[in-house]
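quick q for whoever's on today - can somebody do inverse folding on this one?? i tried earlier but teh output was garbage lol. C-alpha cells:
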C-alpha cells in the first residue's frame, strides 16, 4: 500500500507539473557518456530518445512516405478534400522516388497496421515523410488523429479510438534517420470548454481547441497546417489551402530545403484564408533535407479558401457496418497465378512475363500493388524503385522484384500455410490482375513472432507454438541461412518453449549479433527469468542488467521492448521522470496494438490499492484486449465478471465462457478458474468435484502450483469416483516441486502429513504414468525400487531417496523433466 501510494503521489505531482507525457515522448535528450545505457536512453529531462549517431556527411539511402487521407467519417461533416489532398501528396512523393504507403479512410486497426508498417519498412538509413489529412483534436498537451471508425463516448475511448501524435512520432523516430511529419488537420474538439480526464487516473487537465506545439525528436520536423489552438479549413475548392500551397511551393522548387518551402506555405495560407489560418512547425533537423529530389512536378493546385466552410473537426461517430467477403479460388479471380516464396525479396519478373505472354515490344503499367508487398525495379545505382503507375517495357518486366512486407497474419489462420494476394495492371489487351500464392519459410510459419520489426509477420503467440515442429523448422533454416537473424531469433523462441534456456539464450545472442531488433527483448526475458530464479526479483522489480537489454530494444524500435521496459519503469522507476517515461512507453506499445500493454494498464487501473484506481478505465482496456483474441485479456475479463470487479455484476455464465476461451488457447491459469467454478457450484450444472479435479489437473500440467494444491484438497476432502488418495499425493508432490512460493509450501505441508503407503502409491502411479509397470500396492518393494531406478536413469542420475516423502518429490521432479510445462506462457 505504502509503495503504491508513494508511486501514485510522485506520478501525480509530475503530471500536474511541467512534465507532460507528449512532451516527454518528443523532446530530444542529452546523454552522459559515463552512465549506463539505460540512463543514457532515459535522460534526466524526461525523454526517451534514440542513442544512435547520425553521419550528416552521408545522405540517407532510402526515402519512405506514409500518406493518409481520411474523408469518410460517418457522423462528421464530409471532408472530400482530405482524400484528394492525400492522393495529390502521394502522387508527388512517388514521383520524387519515395516508397509510398498510401491509405484512404483508415480505421483504428488500419492505423495500427500503418504504424507497424513503419516498424518493419523503415531502418536507420531511411528518411521518412508522414502526411495526414483528416480530423484531429487536442486534449491538454496531447494531440490525436481520428480514424474513420472512431466512436468516442468518453475520454476512456481515446486510446482505442484515436491515434496519439506523440506515439506516432516516437515510433517513427525510433526507427528512422530523419522524419518529416505533416498534419493537415483541423482542430475542432468535442470537449471544448470542459474539464475531462486525460492523463493517468484522476489527473485533470483543461481541454482546449487546437493542436499543441510539440517538441520533435532529434532530426525531425513537425509541420502543422495551423497554429496551436487554431482551426484549419478543408477548402472550398478541390484541396485544402494548406496542401494546395504546399504542393504549389514544391512544384516551383522540389529540391528546396523544407524550411524555405514551409516559409512560403505559411505566407500563402495566411493570405488565402484572410489571416484565419497560419501554418506552424517545430524542428530539430540537424542536416539539410528537401521534400523532393528535383523531379518534375507540373500540377499546380488552386488555392481556394476564404477562411470559411468546413473545418476538419470531430463529432461523435456512429459505428460502421461490417462487410462480409466471399473467398474464391485465385484461379477463378485472376488472369494468371504466380507462385513465389514469402521472403523479403523475390525475383518475380520472368514468371510475370511468361504469365502475361509479353512480346519484346509490349509495355505494361502496374496499377495496384499486392497488399503484402510492392513491385520494384532495381536501378543501375543499386536502388530499387517503385513502379506503380509507370510504363514498363518487357525487358523491365523481366527485372521486376517483389518486395514482400511483414503482414501480421496469424499462422493459425492460414489453413494451407500459404498467403493469397494479387495485383492489378494494364496490358496491351486491357486491365487484368495477377494472383499470388506466397509460401512462407517453414521457420517463419512455425515460429514467427507478433510485432517483430525484423520478422515476416506470420505470427504465433507463445501459446500457439508447437515447440518440436518450430525447433525442427528453424534449425533447418539456420543451417541453410546462418546469416539471417530472424531464423536464429525464432529458433530461440522454439528452444525457450522447450525449456532449453541456455540454448535459447545462445540463439538470441546470435540473432542480436546479426542485428535482429527483437533479440534484445528476448535476452532481457532470459536474464529476467534467471534473476527471478536466483531470488533477485522479490518484489517483481527487474535488476539493472535486465533493464539494459530492454533499453537496447527500445532504442531499436521494438514494441515488445517498449512494453517491458515501460512496465518496469512505470512500477519501479523510483522517480517521477522514470515512472512517466514508463507510462509513455507502455502507451507507445499499445499504439501498435500490443495487447500485453492493454492487459497491464488494466491491471494498474483495477488495483484497488492504487490511488489511481479507475474501474471503468481498467475494464475498457480489458475489453479491448479480449476483443483482439488475447488469452490474457479473456482470462482477466473473466475474473472481473467472476468477482464482480469495478462495479460489474457477478456473471458466472460470462466468466465461464471467457475462462474456456482462454484455456482452449493455452492460458496457464484459466483451467484453475474453470475448476473452482465446478468445485464451488458456479459452473453450468452446479457442483461437480470430479470435473473440478479434471480442470485442476490441466492447470497443474501447465505449471500452476495452486491448481495442484486445490486438486489435492478436493481429493482429500471429498469421496470421488475418478480419483483416489494416491492421485491426491501425486498432485501435492508435483505442486511442491514447482519452485518456491506459498502454494508450493502448502503442497509440501500436505505431503508431510501423508502416511508412507499413500506416498509410495503416489510414486508407483507416477512410474506408471511415465510408461513403467503398474505396481499399485503402496509398498516400496524391490520391483518398485527397480522401476523407479529405471526412471531415474532415464531422466537423471542418482538413486531413490531413503524416505517415502523424498521419493515422492524425486519422482515429481522426474515427471516435470519428462513433461515440461511452457514457462514462456507466464
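ok took a stab at it. sequence:
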Amino acid at each position: 500500500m505504502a509503495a503504491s501510494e508513494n508511486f501514485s503521489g510522485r506520478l501525480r505531482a509530475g503530471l500536474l507539473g511541467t512534465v507532460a507525457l507528449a512532451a516527454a515522448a518528443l523532446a530530444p535528450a542529452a546523454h552522459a557518456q559515463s552512465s549506463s545505457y539505460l540512463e543514457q536512453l532515459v535522460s534526466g529531462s524526461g525523454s526517451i530518445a534514440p542513442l544512435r549517431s547520425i553521419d550528416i556527411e552521408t545522405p540517407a539511402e532510402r526515402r519512405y512516405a506514409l500518406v493518409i487521407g481520411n474523408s469518410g467519417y460517418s457522423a462528421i461533416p464530409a471532408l472530400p478534400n482530405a482524400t484528394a489532398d492525400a492522393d495529390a501528396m502521394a502522387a508527388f512523393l512517388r514521383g520524387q522516388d519515395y516508397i509510398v504507403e498510401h491509405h484512404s479512410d483508415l480505421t483504428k486497426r488500419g492505423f495500427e497496421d500503418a504504424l507497424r508498417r513503419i516498424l518493419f519498412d523503415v531502418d536507420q538509413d531511411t528518411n521518412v515523410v508522414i502526411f495526414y489529412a483528416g480530423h484531429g483534436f487536442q486534449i491538454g498537451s496531447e494531440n490525436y488523429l481520428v480514424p474513420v471508425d472512431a466512436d468516442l463516448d468518453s475520454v476512456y475511448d481515446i486510446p482505442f479510438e484515436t491515434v496519439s501524435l506523440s506515439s506516432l512520432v516516437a515510433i517513427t523516430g525510433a526507427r528512422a534517420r530523419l522524419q518529416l511529419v505533416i498534419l493537415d488537420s483541423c482542430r475542432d474538439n468535442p470537449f471544448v470548454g470542459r474539464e475531462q480526464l486525460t492523463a493517468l487516473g484522476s489527473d485533470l487537465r483543461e481541454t482546449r481547441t487546437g493542436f499543441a506545439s510539440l517538441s520533435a525528436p532529434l532530426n525531425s520536423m513537425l509541420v502543422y497546417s495551423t497554429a496551436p489552438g487554431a482551426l484549419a479549413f478543408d477548402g472550398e475548392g478541390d484541396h485544402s489551402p494548406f496542401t494546395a500551397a504546399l504542393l504549389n511551393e514544391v512544384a516551383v522548387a522540389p529540391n528546396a530545403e523544407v524550411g524555405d518551402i514551409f516559409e512560403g506555405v505559411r505566407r500563402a495560407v495566411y493570405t488565402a484564408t484572410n489571416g484565419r489560418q497560419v501554418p506552424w512547425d517545430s524542428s530539430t533537423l540537424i542536416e539539410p533535407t528537401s521534400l523532393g529530389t528535383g523531379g518534375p512536378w507540373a500540377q499546380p493546385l488552386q488555392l481556394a479558401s476564404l477562411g470559411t466552410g468546413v473545418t476538419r473537426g470531430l463529432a461523435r461517430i456512429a459505428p460502421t457496418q461490417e462487410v462480409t467477403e466471399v473467398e474464391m479460388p485465385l484461379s477463378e479471380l485472376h488472369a494468371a497465378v504466380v507462385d513465389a516464396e514469402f521472403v523479403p525479396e523475390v525475383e518475380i519478373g520472368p514468371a510475370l512475363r511468361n504469365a502475361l505472354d509479353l512480346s519484346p515490344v509490349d509495355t505494361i503499367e502496374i496499377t495496384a500493388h499486392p497488399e503484402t508487398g510492392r513491385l520494384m525495379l532495381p536501378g543501375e545505382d543499386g536502388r530499387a524503385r517503385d513502379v506503380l503507375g509507370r510504363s514498363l517495357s518487357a525487358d523491365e518486366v523481366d527485372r521486376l522484384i517483389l518486395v514482400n512486407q511483414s503482414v501480421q497474419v496469424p499462422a493459425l489462420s492460414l489453413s494451407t500455410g500459404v498467403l493469397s494476394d494479387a495485383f492489378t495492371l494494364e496490358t496491351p489487351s486491357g486491365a487484368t490482375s495477377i494472383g499470388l500464392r506466397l509460401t512462407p519459410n517453414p521457420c517463419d510459419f512455425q515460429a514467427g513472432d507478433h510485432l517483430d520489426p525484423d520478422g515476416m509477420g506470420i505470427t504465433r503467440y507463445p501459446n500457439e507454438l508447437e515447440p518440436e515442429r518450430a525447433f525442427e523448422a528453424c534449425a533447418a533454416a539456420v543451417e541453410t541461412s546462418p546469416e539471417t537473424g530472424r531464423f536464429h531469433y525464432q529458433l530461440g523462441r522454439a528452444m525457450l518453449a522447450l525449456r532449453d534456456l541456455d540454448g535459447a539464450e545462445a540463439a538470441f545472442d546470435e540473432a542480436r549479433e546479426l542485428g535482429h531488433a527483437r533479440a534484445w527483448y528476448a535476452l532481457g526475458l532470459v536474464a529476467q527469468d534467471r534473476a527471478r530464479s536466483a531470488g533477485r526479483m522479490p518484489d517483481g522489480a527487474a535488476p539493472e542488467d535486465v533493464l539494459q537489454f530492454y533499453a537496447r530494444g527500445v532504442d531499436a524500435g521494438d514494441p515488445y521492448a517498449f512494453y517491458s521496459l515501460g512496465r518496469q519503469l512505470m512500477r519501479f522507476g523510483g522517480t517521477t521522470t522514470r515512472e512517466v517515461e514508463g507510462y509513455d512507453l507502455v502507451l507507445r506499445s499499445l499504439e501498435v496494438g500490443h495487447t500485453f500493454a492493454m492487459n497491464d494498464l488494466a491491471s494498474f487501473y483495477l488495483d484497488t490499492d492504487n490511488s489511481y484506481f479507475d474501474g471503468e478505465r481498467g475494464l475498457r482496456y480489458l475489453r479491448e484486449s479480449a476483443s483482439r483474441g488475447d488469452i490474457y485479456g479473456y482470462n482477466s475479463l473473466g475474473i472481473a465478471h467472476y468477482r464482480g470487479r469495478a462495479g460489474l455484476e457477478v456473471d458466472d455464465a460470462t466468466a465461464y465462457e471467457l475462462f474456456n476461451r482462454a484455456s482452449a488457447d493455452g492460458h496457464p491459469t484459466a483451467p484453475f478458474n474453470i475448476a473452482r467454478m465446478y468445485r464451488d457450484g458456479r459452473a453450468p450444472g452446479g457442483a461437480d468435484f470430479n470435473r473440478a479435479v479434471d480442470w485442476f489437473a490441466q492447470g497443474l500440467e501447465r505449471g500452476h502450483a495452486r491448481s495442484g494444491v486445490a486438486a489435492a484438497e478436493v481429493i482429500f476432502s471429498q469421496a470421488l469416483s475418478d480419483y483416489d488418495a494416491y492421485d491426491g499425493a501425486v498432485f501435492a508432490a508435483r505442486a511442491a516441486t514447482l519452485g518456491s512460493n506459498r502454494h508450493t509450501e502448502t503442497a509440501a505441508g500436505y505431503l508431510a502429513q501423508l502416511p508412507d503407503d499413500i506416498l509410495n502409491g503416489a510414486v508407483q502411479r507416477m512410474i506408471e504414468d511415465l510408461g513403467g509397470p503398474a505396481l499399485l500396492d503402496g509398498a516400496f518393494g524391490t520391483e518398485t525400487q527397480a522401476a523407479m531406478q529405471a526412471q531415474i536413469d532415464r531422466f537423471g542420475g542418482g538413486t531413490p531417496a531413503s524416505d517415502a516423502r523424498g521419493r515422492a518429490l524425486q519422482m515429481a521432479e522426474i515427471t516435470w523433466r519428462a513433461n515440461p510445462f511452457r514457462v514462456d506462457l507466464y
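fwiw The mean pLDDT is 84. also The first strand starts at residue 62 and ends at 69. so keep that in mind when u check it
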